[in-house]
Design a protein that fits this description.
Largest sheet: 8 strands, parallel, barrel
Helix content: 25-40%
CATH topology of the largest domain: TIM Barrel
CATH superfamily of the largest domain: Glycosidases
Radius of gyration: 23 Å
Number of helices: 11
Number of domains: 2
CATH class of the largest domain: Alpha Beta
Shape: globular
CATH architecture of the largest domain: Alpha-Beta Barrel
Distance between the termini: 26 Å
Structural class: alpha/beta
Strand content: 15-25%
Length: 497
């Protein structure tokens, strides 16, 4: 099947903020205990941080990591997680029905973040707590010294401020499941006042307000409008959350779900711009898609998990090759909207709906979804070209008419290279990719083709077979101007002038 991609040098969607390739660590399941932190593991360092996990995180190069939640944060007292470990209380985590011993707290997370080379996105508890506690957390983390809380941080072994720049104003506050759930009016007022106080401390701090928990909430998108009515001028980003599932094993619809992400983003953009117009503001509201992934494999198993233990095995989706194709499409969607989506967090990072999986006391390995994320993070940081694609299309059960090719082009001005991300959704036919690059001088030559492919859609990477689904180099002969990509594959095509 022929697929012609038209792109022009002068037409771009925007420049990618590297924070689009962020991730998320929550005190949920084995994300922390048995994931990033395991004192007795042979690969752990002097702080109990697993070095094998840190190596894989560094390889992914995630510029920002959201912490500590997620649903967990709305019942979290930050003071419980600082100071000598032996003095920290064990608390009930109401969100996930687990015990939290607070052995991996604020201090440990900051040390881990520095070791893996990422910046934190710290989330305030606006469920059971509010303005006073948020203000105090900022002082503890960011003030250089001379106040009670900044000096307390020094006593705890951190003489220099953490200098956290990005803060989340709560989590999914529209959700009835959330501890301290609020109406849009209640949350909008609280978010506004917390934001004002934080900005009084430091005007340069960036703040993310909670949008709707998902597109199916009965209050969506009125929630966004109401919250922004209160907080538009004092926050910097509005959050989006979205997860995708395929219990029906309908591959055609599942591979089309990036259209659902596209629609969600565009609807929220319209609401933001409506509030901007209503307020006659000169400020543009940007988006933080701080939870996204495939999530459905573990839902039944989670119901059988014993409550009130440390590090229960929750949300441990074992990802298939099919899931990796979908994640590739979702990454294309985020990149297509890089003009407004500046930050995103793959939820999550380790064990819990994550690209990295570990065995407690044992090895760590890359799940199938690791690979499209790795390559997007590595080669997706540039200018996204506004392309038009000529290709056949198909109908599916949920998203209407969808092109067989999910395509995204990134131009790197420093080298002149163009990277093409293509998911071939066709189940039987290869795509013949041809580039039409108006405004680019000279011709472009393919110098690398990386593909993720497998004969079994449900193939997985596990402890015994960690490399069952891995990318491979595709070698072409004299291909001319057309590149073939196989059916049901994720592809990275790299061209240089």
């Amino acid at each position: 099947m022929k697929c012609t991609i038209h792109a022009a040098r002068q037409f771009t969607r925007g420049t990618v903020d590297p924070r689009l390739f962020g991730s998320f660590v929550e005190q949920l399941g084995r994300a922390v205990y048995g994931g990033v932190y395991e004192v007795d593991h042979p690969a752990s360092d002097e702080e109990g941080l697993r070095t094998d996990v840190m190596d894989l995180v560094r390889e992914l190069d995630v510029p920002v990591v959201r912490f500590p939640g997620g649903n967990y944060v709305s019942n979290f007292n930050w003071e419980d997680s600082i100071g000598p470990k032996e003095s920290r209380p064990t608390r009930l985590d109401l969100a996930w029905k687990a015990l939290d011993p607070n052995q991996f707290g604020l201090q440990e997370f900051m040390h881990w973040a520095r070791k893996v080379g990422t910046e934190p996105m710290m989330v305030f508890n606006l469920g059971t707590r509010g303005l006073a506690e948020a203000r105090e957390l900022v002082e503890y983390c960011n003030h250089p010294g001379g106040s009670y809380l900044s000096d307390l941080r020094k006593q705890h072994g951190s003489p220099e401020p953490f200098a956290i720049k990005l803060w989340g104003l709560g989590n999914e506050m529209d959700g009835p499941w959330q501890v301290g759930h609020k109406t849009a009016e209640e949350y909008g007022r609280l978010a506004c006042e917390v934001a004002k106080a934080v900005k009084l401390f430091d005007l340069s701090l960036e703040l993310v307000a909670c949008g709707s928990s998902n597109v199916f909430m009965p209050t969506f998108p009125q929630w966004e409008e109401t919250v922004l009515d209160h907080a538009y001028e004092v926050v910097d980003y509005l959050s989006l959350h979205m997860y995708f599932r395929n219990e029906e094993k309908d591959i055609a619809t599942f591979l089309a779900c990036s259209a659902g992400m596209d629609s969600f983003i565009e609807t929220v953009v319209h609401v933001c711009d409506y509030v901007k117009a209503k307020k006659r503001s000169k400020k543009t509201m940007y988006l933080c898609f701080d939870e996204w992934n495939v999530w459905f494999h573990s839902l039944q198993k989670d119901k059988e998990q014993k409550p009130w233990i440390v590090g229960p095995a929750l949300l441990e989706d074992v990802y298939t090759f099919e899931d990796a194709l979908v994640v590739g499409c979702l990454l294309n969607s985020l990149l297509r909207h890089c003009d407004r989506v500046k930050i995103a967090c793959l939820a999550q990072l380790v064990n819990t709906i994550a690209p990295i999986m570990t065995e407690t006391g044992g090895p760590a390995w890359r799940q199938t979804i690791y690979w499209p994320f790795y390559y997007a993070s590595k080669y997706g940081r540039g200018e996204v070209l506004d392309c038009r694609v000529e290709v056949g299309s198909y109908e599916n059960a949920q998203y209407g008419t969808i092109p067989y090719a999910d395509t995204l082009l990134v131009h790197h001005p420093d080298t002149g290279e163009i990277d093409v991300f293509v998911v071939n959704r066709h189940q039987r036919q290869a795509l013949s990719i041809e580039l039409d690059l108006s405004g680019f001088s000279g011709s472009y030559t393919l110098f690398e083709h990386i593909a993720l492919e497998h004969k079994d859609l449900y193939a997985v990477n596990d402890k015994l077979h960690p490399d069952e689904v891995v990318p491979k180099q595709i070698f072409h002969g004299d291909i001319g101007s057309v590149v073939e990509v196989a059916p049901l594959t994720w592809n990275l095509l790299r061209f240089h002038p």
